[in-house]
Amino acid sequence: MFFPKSGNRRRSPYRSARSVRPQKEVPTHMVTNWTRNKVCVLLAGVFIFGTTFLVPIMMLEKSMSQEATIPMNSKNHISLNHLFDKTKKMEKIIETKSYSVLKKAKQALRKGGHFGIPEDEVNNRDPFELHDNEDHEAHPEEIEESLARGVVGLPMSKTPALIGARPGHIACEVNVDDMAYWNDPQGTRDQEFQSPFASSEPESHYITFEPDPGGWNNIRMSTEVFFVMAAATGRTLVLPPKAPMYLLGTGAAHARSFGNFYPLSNPHLKKRVNVITMKEFVEKEGKSIMNLSDEELEQLLPIAEMCLHQKNSPIICENLYKVLREVGMQPDMHGAHSCYIFDKDKFEGKEISDDVQKRVDRFCGEKRTATFYDQSLHTPKLIHWNADAPTHRVLNHFYTFFYFTDPKIDNYFKRFVRDFMHYTDEIYCAAGKIVHALNDEGKGWSSLHVRRGDLQYKEVKISAEEWYNNTKEIWNDGEILFIATDERNKTFFDPIKEHHEVRFLDDYWDSANLGEMDSYFLGMVDTIVASHGRAFAGTWFSTFTGYINRMRGYLGHSTKTMWYSWLPRKYAVREWTYPEGNYPAREWPIGWVAIDGDEVIEHENEKADSIPDPPDPNEITIEAIEKVPASVAIKNIAMSDLKSDEGFADKPVARGVAGRPMSETPALKGAKRGKIACDVNVDSVAYWNDPTGEKDQNFESPFRAKGEEKFLTFTLDRGGWNNVRMSMEIIFIIAAATGRTLVLPPKEPLYRLRADAKNVHRGFADFFDLSTPEFAKRLNTISMEDFIKMEGGEHGRLPIPEETRQNVTNSAHHCDKRKMSTAYCGYIDDYLATAGYVPDMSAKKSCAVFDVDKFNGKELSSASEESVAKFCGDRERYYFTEELQENTLIHINAGQKELRLLTHFYDFVHFTDPAIDNYYKRFIRDFLHYNDQIYCAAGKIVKALQKEATDRGFSVDEEGAGGFSAMHIRRGELQYQKVKIPAIEWYENTKDLWEPNEIMYIATDERNATWFDDMAEHLELRFLDDYFEFAQLGEMDPNYFGMIDTIIASRGRAFVGTFFSTFSGYINRLRGYHGMSMMDSWHSWLPRKTKMHEWEDVDHFVFSYEWPTGWVGIDGDVVPSKDVF
Fold it and tell me: Which CDD domains does its entry note (predicted)?
């Protein structure tokens, strides 16, 4: 991580601009209150001291006086040893009692009451004031529980290595032991461990190494590798000379050794690996192993103590390393291309088993070469590793570079790094003070690592606006965000500050005594603090972020609380993936989960199941697609094998159970089925009519605006795609009904639709065909650019103020969500909200009503009143009237939280005339469908599924559906945990619905293919990626993939979805448009399994599922009812 420099002598080079967040001062009225608290604690301390020490001493004195008068042969004789035994027992009891007393006193102080300060004063405490940890020394009955940390721990019965271990301690003037993730001492078994690969002569076999040339976290990673290597092989590890490290200062003043960062003097560590300095090594072995002359030895000794990288320096490091490269053995390995295998059989010259070979192959993958540790690597006196050279760099995690084929040994060395390779107490003490200060604010807090400096991966260096939009659902309302960053300009974070209070390291400069530390420790303090947040989002490719994730893992946090800000890799750390590919770009849970056990466990424990996920719209990215297993059977299907839909468009337009006889559907007279432009005829996947019937073509809304052209503008919903689509359908209906020209927003980055990094700006025309003549007859649309030119000029009806004209004009074609952008979307939004009339209506509290009488200023008829009451229920009624139509511009601010239109159009907009109500339901069905490119790809996959199905003996129905069945399995960050059930439960809950040997198509956001294994034992599964090449998906906009998934799933014989998912809801609506019975739709969650089999007249706000009034009988002129359902 890059540490920015500052000319301010008082500040560290790492500090952010202090002027951005001034320090708060402690109110003077708190002094008296806290003095009272100190007195209370002092009294508690006196009680504890007295009971712990004075009482035993008094008993001892009494016994000694009795001893002087009681005969030695008396039965009542009390020996001094016996008294000491009794005193020790008493001390144990008192220790427990006093622990409890102190704990209760501290809790009382924090809660207020007669023991402490009043509650209102507690709430006014300075958020940056430091307080001692509530719970002090843990007691034996608590130790075992504390050793099994969070979701990574195991029961003590499965962790014999922990017997005798205790949680680590941090030397600090404030108790911050809860920061320590390590054990000290380790368990008895680990203390007695002897590596089977250890040299019998550790004092004469060495490892020397040259540090990685990169930044600190690269150096740290390779150092962990060398410590494990030395400990495993029993060699003495020789530390490099003190030297400046990249980005940690230059020159002799900044020369550092690893002892500056790690507690290498720990006696327990010294028992595991012998560590000496380079100077000690040169003094001892200079004339033997290094073969130096007296003169050479004299020259190298100063360099061995401290060296510099400047070429002209008399103590240049290269002079020493050149000698070591000549005399030492360099294993032919590289961190990215090699894997280092330790197997006892291979070490002893035996053959390895097939099982071991299989596990080694899995660990190394296809692109790495396995090097087994054998006698050829064991024998040399000196192994010297030139990690500074590109050919031998070890930029990898120790646990993805080393593989010990015995899981007990593998886990031992993972514990070795966890328990010994942690930062010093000084660093942890400062971090602990900050974490406690954040905790004491009482608002809850999460953390981010925003890498901005010299990171070479430009695609992940995104704006603060993008940071927030990409992660906003992760954070709890009102919680503080601690930001670890190398960004010096703190105004960069203003877009985040609009939504959350933020804290930076420099906010704690005085309270954590950061000015007294080595300034280059501050990045490490930042790392530790960030690892303790409730949730964490980091920067992809950053090893700084990676180490935070590993620390969180060591602390027992679930990977379900960890994300990345870059959308293509947002969920990478949350997916349980066996290490592969770009190993150092991230850390992998296998490095910390269940490492206290004796076997490899590739999942977190059951505690992780109770951790809720934030909401997440359904989208499928290229990365997700490429990870699902491919089906061999599909490779045998050619495009020429697909059954064409020739003549399908000439079929009657009344579809299945949703259709009515032509005598009951006059609107369909003259209508024909829609067609899809595609190189394969896939017209059967089209559910719409094109052209629509003559009645619809000639329809004119009675609510149309009169006179000059009127406009309707809107802002997009800030949620995921299905949220955007739902509010868009409402807005299109309002525009069509009022006869207003709909102004399409400028293209902008849509939330979660950024899989195509080269083209992030999107408009509705990218997904829907809004250019057809038939659509233009129903609704006139223009671009924001044209609207601005037409009405925003000085001669227009809605002139833009001169001071904002340039900004608004810049944002009219496409806009960004970054405030610093010259094309900021907010410029357009502010102008429209000021120039237009903004209706005070939202999906949550309102219903929009169109009634002809009300529109013309009359009272509602009794029939209309009954209709409105039945539709709106307790919601506020928002009537569209002729008076409202007088406004030149109506602006629907759906992007504002209080005005969101997050519901289905048929749950929000109500026309009291059933014929008009059904007309607008047909309007959505017939015009707002995805474009032909999306349907063409989906249609090909449906046809391929049906080709494979017919070969199995299954048939396709007369509407071109079936042959296979489908599921939508929502796994991402759906907040409704009760419906996120395991794969085997999915199968058990639905197995009665499937035909034997039937193909099952699964639309899903689950990226871990192995999750489906329990289903694959019973069902023949297919996924979108199975057809990646067949349907040429790689040539398409990757943002289309979720939409393609929706269409395919809608054509299955039977369908099971995820209750509460709008993705599943839309699939059911598409099935309804096709005329498919809802009796063939289910949900996997048993309490709502048959929800779609019920008729429902909804009179309240609902968005998480759909219901048949949106599609059943909508070609008629009467209100859809249960009778026709």
Answer: O-FucT_like (cd11296)
Nearest-angstrom CA–CA distance, 873 and 875:
6
Q: What is the DSSP secondary-structure string of 778-847?
A: H--EEEHHHHHHHHSSTTSSSPPPGGGHHHHHHTSSB-BS-TTSTTBHHHHHHHHHHHSB-----TTTEE
Tell me how far apart the alpha carbons of residues 996 and 994 are, in angstroms, rounded to a whole number: 7
Average pLDDT over residues 468-491: 94
Q: Which two tokens stand for residue 979?
A: 């419906």
* Percentages of the chain per state (helix, strand, coil), in multiples of 5: 45, 10, 45
Dist. CA 587–CA 716, nearest whole Å: 36
DSSP bridge partners of 402: 340
Write down the residue that tokens 């402690």 correspond to: 26
pLDDT of residue 44: 56
Give yes or no for a contact between 901 and 1004, defined as CB atoms under 8 angstroms apart: no
Give me the mean pLDDT over the 268-289 stretch.
Answer: 96
State the Cα–Cα distance between residues 718 and 900, nearest whole angstrom. 9
Phi, psi (5° rounding) for residue 1019? -125, 150
Q: How many residues does the chain have?
A: 1125
**How many Å apart are CA 152 and CA 596, to the nearest integer?**
9
Distance CA 324, CA 319 (A): 9
pLDDT > 90? residue 349: yes
586-609 pLDDT, tens digit each: 999 999 999 999 998 888 876 776
* This prediction's pTM: 0.51
The span from the CA of 222 to the CA of 213, in Å, is 10
Question: How is residue 539 written in tokens?
Answer: 């920067």
Q: Alpha-carbon distance 937 to 680, whole Å? A: 10
- For residue 635, the model assigns a pLDDT of 65
The candidate with the shortest Cα–Cα distance to 658, out of 918, 273, 1004, is 918
Residue that the structure tokens 């039965």 belong to:
75
Q: What is the DSSP letter of 996?
A: T
Q: How far apart are the first and last CA of the chain?
A: 63
Helix/strand/coil for 1057? strand
- Residue % of the chain over a pLDDT of 90: 67
What's the one-letter identity of residue 563? Answer: W
Q: How does DSSP assign 711-745, residue by residue?
A: EEEE---SS-HHHHHHHHHHHHHHHHHHTPEEEEP
Q: Quick one: tokens of 543?
A: 């090893």
How far is it, in rounded angstroms, from Cα 683 to Cα 704? 35
The answer, yes or no, to whether residue 633 has pLDDT greater than 70, is: no
Phi then psi for residue 209, to 5 deg, are -155, 155
Higher local confidence (pLDDT), 468 or 32: 468
Element (H, E) at 263: none
Chain segment 204-252, per-residue pLDDT in tens = 999 999 999 989 999 999 999 999 999 999 999 999 999 999 888 889 9
Which residues are registered as beta bridge partners of 880?
Answer: none
Nearest C-alpha neighbor of 484 from the set 533, 441, 439, 440: 533
Tokens for 505? Answer: 């390291």
- Residue written as token pair 């069509």: 736
pLDDT digit string (tens) for 372-385? 999 999 999 999 99
- Nearest-5° angle of CA 435, CA 437, CA 440? 110
Q: How many helical (H) and strand (E) elements, i.e. helices and strands, does the chain have? A: 37, 26
What pLDDT shows up at residue 764? 83
pLDDT at 831: 97
Least confidently predicted of 9-23, 505-519, 698-712, 987-1001 = 9-23
Phi-psi region of 172 (alpha: psi -120 to 50; beta: other; left: phi over 0): beta
Query: Beta partners for 968?
Result: 1003
Radius of gyration, alpha carbons of the chain: 35
DSSP 416-446: HHHHHSS--HHHHHHHHHHHHHHHHTSS-EE
DSSP 792: S
Q: Taking CA 837 as the corner, what is the angle to CA 832 and CA 841, rounded to the nearest 5 degrees?
A: 105
Three-class SS of 90-120: HHHHHHHHHHHHHHHHHHHHHHCCCCCCCHH
